[in-house]
């Protein structure tokens, strides 16, 4: 489980005995767990822009698990959130999922079920991290560069784009090169992979 050992698993729970037990349990599945007994300490210490999985207790002194989740949402963190609580109920679980939680367990939890949820959460987090980082690159494009990007992925040649935009082919070549450089793309396949990020519902023009 080399990959699992490289992933970031954060356990935020004020109960040291439970934290020790869960850390031991998850290490048996190949994970390296970093424990925090305080939600604010977790938020202040961890790089929230990196992928990983946060396992949150719902009721803790200071920030609750739900408050930590809300702050993660506000920072657009790609971290997947799994709730693990001894005081869970249906409304709490519904709220957690509504706010983007990946899974919700009540203590005690079966190790295999938790490990499977973590695996899925980490995969989801990696996808979210990739999406957020590349979305930022697309947002850095000028309006004209976005227009060129769209025309390119639609299959237009440089000559066709020049005619459509009433500019010289050389101008298209310059814009196209800038788009490729800004997006870190070296071929058409990479551009096509990024194309769905060009028109988000909250960024429609």
Automatic annotation (TrEMBL):
Residues annotated as domain Response regulatory: 8-122
Modified residues (4-aspartylphosphate): 57
Keyword DNA-binding: yes
Domain HTH luxR-type positions: 134-199
Keywords tagged on the record: DNA-binding, Phosphoprotein, Transcription, Transcription regulation
Signal peptide: none
Protein name in UniProt: Response regulator
Species of origin: Shewanella corallii
